[in-house]
Amino acid sequence: MDAVTVTDLGVDRGRRRVLPGLSFAVPAGQVTGLLGPSGSGKTTLMRALVGVQQVRSGQVTVLGEPAGSPGLRARVGYVTQAPSVYDDLTVRENARYFASLYGMSAREADAAIADVGLADAAGQLVADLSGGQRGRASLACALVGSPEVLVLDEPTVGLDPVLRVELWERFHALAAAGTTLIVSSHVMDEAGRCDRLLLLRAGELIADSTPAQLRADGRSEDLEEAFLNVVRAREEVAA
Ligand SMILES: Nc1ncnc2c1ncn2[C@@H]1O[C@H](COP(=O)(O)OP(=O)(O)OP(=O)(O)O)[C@@H](O)[C@H]1O
Q: In what residue span(s) does the ABC transporter domain sit (predicted)?
């Protein structure tokens, strides 16, 4: 079953056509990576998926409803690149506040904090956290609502490798329990951790694939090189 379907999605930002017309589907209960260089349109696409982006054309359907429908608010979680937590509250107070909005208990808030590796910093004010810790506090606040679809914009930026691996394990545990995750990254080594890959370049979908298929199509075990080979092959066809 598909959790998300996108048909001919066109988005302009300012005077630029950022997404010319994308079509793809995201299967439920998997981790789908949205990979692409800076400026390729990842955030714009994620904004369209959660219904906060004005679109020029096309349809975005999430869990059977148009993206942004009121009925999806509690079912779709979105963690932006800029952490959306309250600086003047502690990590615990933030998580418990968001838990109360979703009708969840303080215990569930504390579990979400532990899930992102912030248990030791639970009593600290968000204002006193590092950038990476702040991002994880924001992630904890999204996890606490147990959304069916989680859209995460570069959640591992600035994290040390151990923590990155732990978060990816957490993403896969959530997917195994039925959550659909869409995770953006511009680091190709994270592509290998995804079940499926959507590769964007200048707003175009270069690949809708799996890591294994991309390695085969790009004739390289190295995903970055495989991506480049696929891009070059497309350019040769277009020339
Ligand atoms: N508010 C805006 N007005 C005009 N253009 C914008 C706006 N926001 C983004 N853009 C442009 O849209 C394009 C795609 O931006 P987007 O943020 O979606 O890319 P991205 O792949 O998420 O990049 P990054 O990895 O750096 O976050 C870029 O060329 C960017 O300059």
A: 4-227
**Cα–Cα distance, 92 to 106 (Å, whole number):** 9
Query: Which residues surround ligand 1 with Cβ inside 6 Å?
Result: 13-14, 16, 18, 36, 38-44, 186
Residue 233 CB coordination number (10 Å): 14
Output the six-digit token pair for 79.
């963690």
Query: Exposed, middle or buried, 16 (CB in 10 Å: 0-12/13-18/19+)?
Result: exposed
Query: What structural domains and CATH numbers belong to the chain?
Result: 2-75+147-238 (3.40.50.300)
Cα of 159 from ligand 1 centre, angstroms: 23
Q: Coil, strand, or helix at residue 7?
A: strand
What's the complex ipTM? 0.95
Q: Quickly count: other Cβ atoms within 10 Å of residue 1's Cβ.
A: 9
Convert the pLDDT of each residue in 104-125 to its tens digit: 999 999 999 998 889 999 999 9
Nearest ligand 1 atom to alpha carbon 46: 18
